[in-house]
Amino acid sequence: MKYLFLATDENKMQLYHLLLNAINFHDKGHEVATILECASPKLLIGIADGTIKLPVFDKAMELGIIDHACKACSAAFSATEAAQKLGVALRGELSGHSDLLKFADAGFSILTF
Questions:
Q1: Under CATH, to which class is 2-112 assigned?
Q2: DSSP assignment, residue 94?
Q3: H/E element, 57
């Protein structure tokens, strides 16, 4: 099955649990994508500068299951540079924001925390 994990809040424990589950789904053979939308891209700043320790983020990046961060939201929270430093793609096909319809049309179930 296909699952899109959608992070929306600036809460490192929420992102931790979302990524932990995304990795588990991936490890169990599911197709997984993760998007950082709304306030969650702000966490990239702390991850990039080392003030937020989140090893599951590194594991998710290694597995290639972080699809992107919202371009507009990353800019709004001054997280664009951090996303680029971490290698997180920025996308904004929907007026600068993430287009979830393309994932739904591709058969992904959308999960959010």
A1: alpha beta
A2: B
A3: helix 55-63
